[in-house]
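Complex record, two chains
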Amino acid sequence: MLLNIIICEDNDKLRTYYNLIIKSYINEHPGVEMKVSISTGNPRDVNIYMDNQNDAIRFFLLDIEFPDSGIKGIDLATSIRKLDSNAKIVFITTHEELMTLIFDRKVEPLDYISKEIGLKAIKKKLYQDLDVAIERLVPITERNVDTFEFGPKPYVIPTNQINYFESLEYKHSVIMHSSKDTANMPDTLQSIAARLPKFYRAHKSILVNPANIESIDDKRSKLVFKDGSSCDISRRKLVELRKHLNR
Amino acid sequence: MAIPFYNIAWIINDFLSSFLLFIIYFHILPKSKNHLNYILSVIICICFTVFDVFSSSFPNLSSFLIIIASFLCIKSKDKVIDKLISWAFSLFLVTITQGMGSILILSILPTLSNPKTSIQSIILFVLLTFLNYLLAFTFLAIYKITLKKFDFSKFLNDLLVKISILVSLIILNIFYLSLDSLTKYINMDETYLKLTVIIIFITIIFISTSTSMFIYSHVKGIRTNLELKQESERDTYIKELEKSNDELRKFKHDYKNLLLSLSASINNKDDKDLKSSVEKLLNYEQINIESDNHLTALYKLDDKLVKGILISKLMQAKSKNIKTDFEVDKDAQIPSNYSVDITRILGILLDNAIDACLETDNPELDFALISFDNYLEFVVKNNVKSNDSINTNNVYKSGYTTKKNHSGLGLASLMDIVDSNKDFIIQTENDNGYYSTIITISKGK
């Protein structure tokens, strides 16, 4: 897998400096295939590059303001995200007031680097971001990890983060409890169970991930998960669950 | 006391018709469905059948007693008024279907009106029970279909509407039962029974028209109230605009003064004064003018309900000195069919967020409405007290709350709204001292 690095910064001096940082990073990591595909001061070049290259893995380092060009860094990032949902985008900017929620959710940038923190700190942050980018080189959906997805986005979550699904009485939707968040989706436990064969229907209203169970609390009839959260389960079902876990 | 054989058929019929009462009740209020209530209802039915057998002189007295007893015994999480309405409705439905059933049988098979042999009586009561159940379920189905087709549930949520329905149901019940017992007591023949039913139907028509007219006028009242509220929200918006306009004018005024003094200082060549004036001018931007660029998009939002709730909650948060950032995507379009639901959801979420962040030292509340190609996202994000461990596992369960003196119903009713819409997804995250809720709404395909 080749990681293409794209730099777009209108200040020539800074661009050369970023180039140097990235080149040295590449030299220090001979095991990973990387190259600087484009280093430019004109955002139009990035657009042209995006039109020609389709299925490459990319890391973008963008400035937010380009005073000499009609294109804004934000619009550029939004169009990049539209074309490539796996692109890693890092902003390097003086305009921190532009870190808005809308922008954050639309572009989902990997990081913001403020130019004011000094060249050394920029180098350190850039190194960290490249580390993360390499770690996530293979997108989550293609990794050898089971995932579960839902919603129009779609929202993708590795199944090993899911603790359990729960349906409330007289409701048409299911609540997913993961170690990261809680989400409600219009679905039934039955159809989710069909999509996730490793999960166990521990109860009429609960579908648990056996891999995430830390312990079973007999006294309070609760299941305790690895992240410390817990869910109630009927005493009667505990016996069956234990049998299932020991298999 | 020896009970003749045909009486057993009558007893079974009596038992089954009281049981029908419970079946209807459980259908109307599904929250009351549980094993304990099933067992209780069977016990109550048996008790009152026995009661009927031994005191057959007051056949209708038991109907009232059974309602009172079941109201006290059958427990569920519904409101008292809902329970009362459901009991009155169930009783009414059972008595009416019973009356209709007997009329039908008597008009089709007049020989059965006074059963002489046990076989005749058994046929009579089997037919009666069958017709009773059939009619009751038909009415119940019609009731459910109409409820689904025309979205009455919103009107039914109003207390006054509920009370008027309850009163009319009680009047109908008493009227019917007393008329029925009167005809039985003086032992008149069937023509009078038929007359009774005709009179009852006329009353039903009268009472239901008057109730629906009353409800209609009341709903109109609710609407006017809503309009008044919107008007007051518009007022606060205008006031806010005036305030920022004032600030701008003040700034212009001060700015001129400062420039004036600056030019004076230059003339005097007094370096110290010059320096301080310039510094004042430079620092000015920090004092008053905060450019709310995102807010213009909020004011341009074309959905009045959603805009209203956002502006009023924004004002509320600002008045409580919460650091706010409300962003609205400039091309966000709210689907009009979800406008009411979104408004209710945002009201609940923003109220909770304001309450939660006020417990911190530097309250922060962010809101964003983001438009994507095929879906919308609402993000409500607030900071929480760091040692506050909100159990996200339970937040949507009815009655769960972290607030003192609160019922914990806000999030549960939010859940009800989300649950009744297939296009809604709600996600909560608790991360790094920030609690955020994201609602995703797919745009219609």
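Note: Chain B is about 65% helix and 10% strand.
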